Amino acid sequence: MICESVEKLRKTVEGILKIDKGGVRVLDADKLRARLIDALIQTAIFSPNDETMQAARWMIYRAGAALDVLSSSIQPLYEAMGSKEVTGFTVPAINIRTLTYDVAQSVFRAALKGKVGALIFEIARSEIDYTRQRPQEYAVAVIAAAIKTGFEGPLFLQGDHFQVSAKKFAGDPEKETQSVKNLIWEAIEAGFYNIDVDTSTLVDLSKPTIKEQQKINYSLAAELTTMIRDLEPKGITISIGGEIGEIGGKNSTVEDLHAFMSGYLEELKKNGKGMKGISKISVQTGATHGGVPLPDGTVAKVKIDFDALERLSEAARTSYGLAGAVQHGASTLPDEAFDRFPAVGTAEIHLATGFQNIIYDSSHFSAELKAKIYDYLKAECISEKKESDTEEQFIYKTRKKGFGPFKKELWNLPDKTLGAIGRELEEQFALLFDKLKVTGTADVANRYVKPVDAPLKVPAEFK
């Protein structure tokens, strides 16, 4: 049910939620979880009335806070990992490109069963565009899923690959930098207290020394760090990630790490004495985002340089107190590979395309809707098809771009379909949590991270 007016929304929540002194009191948590949260999230995403949509989003944020679901920074836990007080697991950072409310429920169900607390939900700059999910929309869908499943504790929302486009930067550096700054601002206001700054696209391998190659990367990363520190809410230190090697490019080395960090720390000193820097570093060790599709549409095997990953993680912790190295582009690896990430001290691993594939390739997914999406891609994205691409390769590479235009149809698939796909996803999340050794980390996350209820603008209708 979608509420089309604030008045209808008020009547819908009567007896379950109470608007009180700029906040929300939960009068009946069981009814909230059983039915009301479904109506609230549908209204928050699809209401034709903007005031009603914003009111529903605010209710979800505040109901979450009332039920101990608070967006938080993972910074204190990463500092503990950097000092080696906490070891032995790799934090999964999960990108949800479609069905965000339903997929997040699958994540939370698996997390609750495994007592997982070290877990991040994220969305990249590029994904925000093609999935048509702005940061606030993504945040409320994840918070609503936490409410629905009964998850409690710190919730980690992350801006992934808030990336500077090398092509746009070359054309107008100021404009492209401002675009990333605007996105950072929007994300922080939406409750994203973990931001991965990606200026690695600006590494210039033609320069004679490694530090010169990394110069624009570390200088701009320091500038964006300073901006983030100026914007973070009182009592919250946002966890910031840097990146030394573009994913899909040249493999990173410990020398790259030292060159980046020495320059980055020098720049930070100029910008503000004692300012906290990044908490982790993303590296390239052989992966590619989404994997490499073969002519038949299957994905080529990826060879990760685990020795390099181990060296980089250890150097990041020992020399700079970072949580360690971050691995991107790994979700299409075979399941047996995931045990190795915690074994070599990887701090964080980013996972996206594998979950997208489970949804599209599920026997329960609507064949009619899939055909409709693929026809759309063949019409609207044909310019992205290389001469050497088979149709299967083209579809595999572009099908992520069908999620935005068909968002409403996807969200409104039959409950039976969504339930079946959700169970498949939950099984995969549980397997990954076990292999990454994050089962049982709820106590660790709660011990180190003390959530702060950051101020949120109250809609005029509820003041």
Care to describe what's here?
This protein is of the alpha/beta class. The protein has three domains: 6-67, no CATH class; 70-359 and 425-448, Aldolase class I (TIM Barrel); 364-411, no CATH class. It is built from 19 helices and eleven strands. It has helices at residues 6-13, 29-46, 50-66, 75-82, 100-114, 125-130, 135-149, 166-171, 173-189, 210-231, 254-271, 306-320, 340-343, 353-361, 367-380, 391-398, 407-411, 415-435, 442-448, and strands at residues 17-20, 23-26, 69-72, 91-95, 120-124, 153-163, 194-198, 239-243, 280-283, 325-327, 348-351. The strands form two sheets. The chain has an eight-stranded parallel β-barrel with strand order 4-5-6-7-8-9-10-11, surrounded by six helices. A two-stranded antiparallel sheet has the order 1-2. Helix 13 (340-343) links the parallel strand 10 and strand 11. Helix 2 packs antiparallel against helix 7, helix 3 (50-66) packs across helix 7 and helix 10 (210-231) packs across helix 11 (254-271). The longest helix is centred in the middle third of the chain and has 22 residues, at 210-231. It is globular, with a radius of gyration of 22 Å. Mean pLDDT is 92; it is low at 289-294.
